[in-house]
Design goal:
elongated, 3 strands, DNA-binding, three-stranded antiparallel beta sheet, Arc Repressor Mutant, subunit A, homodimer, Four Helix Bundle (Hemerythrin (Met), subunit A), 222 residues
Chain lengths: 222, 222
DNA sequence: CCGGCAAAAATTGTCGACAGTAGTGCAATC
DNA sequence: GATTGCACTACTGTCGACAATTTTTGCCGG
C-alpha cells in the first residue's frame, strides 16, 4: 500500500499514528484496564502489518499505558489505588513547581487566559454542565504546565495525567466538589497574578493534594 | 536461531536485552550525543534481525535517550544547557519529595545505610578517589529514591538521571566540590534521622539546586 | 461429574525480502 | 569553473511467512 490516506499526514510516521490511535481507544475506555490487546485485531483495524503495530505497542509500554508480558501479549495497564496515590503525590510536586514558575514569569495575557478558564468553569458549575467543567479543568491544568517554561515538567505531568485516566474513570463530580475545586483555582491564579512564587507553589500543591483526598475517599467501585 | 546464548537469560525478552545493551553502550559514551545509530550496525552487533532492534529503539526513544527522525534514522539525543537545567529543576522537586517521604518512614537500618554511604564518600574524598566518590554519590541518591516508598517517583527520578548523563559527561569534580556536596549529604541524612520532613525536603531540594549551580557554572566544553 | 493429559488452534516472536526515500557523487551544461 | 540534473547507493519502512510458545479443546480414566 504505497499511498494510503493515513500516510498523507506528514511528520508522523505510521507507528506514531497507530500509537496515537491505540492510546485514544484505550483512554476512551474501549479497552478496559486489564484487558488483553490482540495484535491480530489491531492488524485488521489498521490494515497494516504487525511490524509497525509492535513498535507502537513498545512505545505505549514506555508511556505506562500498557504492559507487555513475554509470550503472553500486551494488556491495558491496571492501576491499583496505591499506584494512583503515588502518582498524585508526584503530580502534586510537579504542579507546585509549575505554579512557582508561572508566578515568576506569567505575562498579563497569560493571567487573563487563566482567569478566563476559571470563569468558564464557574459558569459551567452554574449550568450544572459537568462535561464542560471537566474540559475546562483539564485546559487550565494543561495551560499552566505548558506555559511554565519547562517542557520536561510539562511532559512528565501530562504523562501522569494520561496514566491516571486508567484509574476509575467513573469520577463522579459532585457540585460542591466542583465549587471547592474552582475556589482553589481562583486562589492559585491570584497567587500567580501577584507574582508570589511561594504562595503559588503551596496553593498548587494543596490543590492536587485535596484532589487526591477526594479521589481516595470515594469508595472503590472497580 | 532457536537456542542462542543470549536467549537463555529469562524474564527478559530479546528486545529488552537489546535495549539494555544499546543503553549501556550509549551511556558508556561509545556513541556520542548527536551520533547517528545505524540499524544494520546493530544487526551485525547482536546477530538478530531488524525487528527486535527497531522495537528496542522505539522504547529507548520514549525514555529520552535517542531521537527518531522519520526516514532519516535514529540519533543519540543531544541535550542543550537549557534542557539540562529544566531537568535539574524537575529533579530537585522530585528529590525533595523523596527526602520528605524518607524522613517520615525511614527505619533505623535505612538510616544506618545512609550514614554508611556518606562515610564511604568522606573516605573516598580523603583518598582523592573521584571514581569511588561518584559511585557512592549515585548509590546514595538511588537508595533514597528507591526507599521512599513511591516507585513512580523513583522511576521518574532515575529516568532523569539517565538522560542527564547525555549532558557533558566530562563532569570534573573538584575536591572542594565533593566536600561541600558531601556536607550537604550529611545534613540531608540528619534531617531524615530526625524524622523532620520539612527540613529533609528543603535540604534535598537545595542539594540538587546547588548541584545545578555548579554544573551550569562550568564553562561549556562541548 | 471432574481432573489431568494430549493434540490442535491461536497467538506471539523472529526473520529475510521487497519497496520507498534520503543522501552522494558524477557528468553534462551554461 | 560552478551549478544543476540525474543515476546510484545506502538506508529506513513495511510486509508476508515461518518458528516457538501459550492457550484452548477434546478425550480418557477415575
Amino acid at each position: 500500500m504505497p499511498t494510503n490516506a493515513i500516510e498523507l499526514l506528514k511528520s508522523h510516521s505510521l507507528p506514531m499514528l497507530i500509537e496515537e490511535e491505540i492510546q485514544r481507544v484505550i483512554l476512551k475506555g474501549e479497552y478496559a484496564p486489564g484487558d488483553r490487546i490482540n495484535e491480530k485485531e489491531l492488524v485488521l483495524r489498521f490494515g497494516t502489518s504487525r511490524g509497525p503495530i509492535r513498535e507502537a505497542l513498545r512505545s505505549l509500554e514506555s508511556s505506562g499505558l500498557i504492559e507487555q508480558i513475554p509470550n503472553r501479549g500486551v494488556f491495558v495497564r491496571k492501576l491499583s489505588a496505591a499506584e494512583a496515590a503515588n502518582m498524585y503525590d508526584v503530580r502534586a510536586v510537579l504542579f507546585a513547581l509549575a505554579g512557582r514558575l508561572m508566578a515568576m514569569r506569567a505575562t498579563p495575557e497569560e493571567i487573563a487566559r487563566l482567569r478566563g478558564f476559571a470563569q468558564a468553569m464557574d459558569e459551567a458549575i452554574a449550568r450544572g454542565d459537568v462535561e464542560a467543567y471537566l474540559r475546562g479543568n483539564f485546559a487550565l491544568h494543561e495551560f499552566i504546565v505548558t506555559h511554565a517554561g519547562n517542557p520536561v515538567l510539562a511532559s512528565q505531568y501530562l504523562s501522569l495525567i494520561k496514566q491516571l485516566r486508567l484509574y476509575r474513570t467513573r469520577n463522579l463530580m459532585l457540585p460542591e466538589s466542583m465549587r471547592a475545586s474552582n475556589d482553589e483555582h481562583h486562589e492559585m491564579i491570584d497567587a500567580i497574578a501577584a507574582h508570589d512564587p511561594e504562595r503559588a507553589a503551596s496553593t498548587h500543591l494543596n490543590h492536587v493534594a485535596t484532589a487526591k483526598q477526594r479521589l481516595m475517599a470515594t469508595p472503590n467501585i472497580a
